[in-house]
Specification:
Layout: H1 3-19, H2 22-29, H3 33-47, E1 52-55, E2 58-61, H4 63-90, E3 95-101, H5 109-120, E4 124-130, H6 133-141, E5 147-150, E6 159-167, E7 169-174, E8 194-198, H7 204-217, E9 222-227, H8 230-238, E10 243-247, E11 258-263, E12 270-277, H9 283-300
Parallel strand pairs: 3-4, 3-5, 8-9, 8-10
Antiparallel strand pairs: 1-2, 5-12, 6-12, 7-10, 7-11
Helix pairs in contact: 1-2, 1-3, 1-4, 2-3, 5-9
GO cellular component, one term: protein-DNA complex
Protein name: LysR family transcriptional regulator
InterPro entries: LysR_HTH_N, LysR_subst-bd, WH-like_DNA-bd_sf, WH_DNA-bd_sf
Length: 301
């Protein structure tokens, strides 16, 4: 069996293993169903093992097939990354770095990193995608992104994490609100207000930390809206639907309809962390991690 044929067989096997349906897999691969069945049979014969059980039109992976799916999925992903990197090098590029991030990371941290990386590595392509925390973790584990910027205290095994920014929270109020920086004393002044907060799905630990602010003040907030986008929070606050609490880095000083009050006198802080997969071999990832430690963490400390 040639390498080219073996690679094609693996692609076919993974398509059937994922969909557990030969016709759907054949449609996905743009080949005929009999042709796909023949290729899978050739693979089984070549390996000397049975990969699928077929009963009454149902397709199930055998124990060996399940193992092969797990291992080949992981290694084929690495092979695709290697091929893509080779194509970029052939096109005169140094490589590609795929970022995932929560919105607040785009205010200062990521633009600063991109400028530093572009200075030393002008041929690197950047792919940027705003994602919630959990989607970033899933994408990092699958190596669909190279580095993520999250607000989480705990991450899965297999990932590395380093804190890049610890910051206070800010109150967000409509510009005409009676409370301002000069007369604000503590959160109990807002006990009767409706609050617009980031959804717990954005980050359960972040949400718990915000709830801790209210716990320390002795009241439970009336949460009228939850969202995962700061832009939505600001629009709701502008239009009188409530007030909010956000990380300091999300302050929008260019919005004339809002005012922000920093909560510097409370113990709660929110931490933005960089996260990456320990097994990611993208050479550009090493450079960005070095930049984080030399130019962001050191300055922060």
């Amino acid at each position: 069996m040639s390498y080219q044929l073996e690679y094609r067989h693996i692609k076919y096997f993974l398509a059937v293993a994922e969909l557990l349906h030969f016709r759907k897999a054949a449609d996905h691969l743009f080949i005929s169903q009999p042709g796909l069945s023949r290729q899978i049979k050739d693979l089984e014969n070549g390996l000397g093992i049975k990969l699928f059980d077929r009963h009454n039109r149902q397709v199930k992976l055998t124990r060996a097939g399940t193992y092969l799916k797990q291992e080949l999925s992981k290694n084929l992903k690495n092979l695709d990354i290697i091929f893509n990197h080779a194509k970029l090098l052939a096109a005169g590029k140094q490589g590609q770095l795929k970022f995932g991030y929560v919105g607040s990371a785009m205010q200062h941290i990521i633009p600063h990193l991109l400028l530093l990386l572009k200075k030393d590595h002008p041929g690197v392509l950047f792919n940027l995608k705003e994602m919630d925390n959990q989607k970033q973790l899933d994408s990092l584990l699958n190596q669909d992104i190279d580095i993520g910027f999250v607000r989480l205290e705990r991450i899965p095994r297999g990932l590395n994490q380093t804190a890049v920014l610890s910051e206070p929270f800010c109150l967000v109020l409509p510009i005409a609100h009676q409370i301002n920086a000069s007369n604000f004393k503590n959160m109990t002044q807002l006990k009767g207000e409706s609050f617009i907060l980031f959804d717990p799905e954005y980050s359960a630990t972040y949400y718990e930390k915000v709830m801790g602010i209210f716990d320390d003040c002795g009241f439970a907030p009336l949460v009228s809206h939850n969202t995962i986008h700061s832009g939505s929070i600001y629009k709701l606050v502008e239009n009188g639907f409530g007030v909010s609490i956000v990380p300091k880095s999300l302050k929008d000083l260019n919005n004339p309809n809002l005012k922000f009050i920093e909560l510097n006198n409370i113990p709660q802080r929110t931490v933005l962390s960089a996260v990456w997969n320990k097994e990611n071999n993208n050479p550009i990832l090493t450079h960005i991690i070095d930049l984080i430690h030399k130019n962001i963490i050191n300055k922060r400390c």
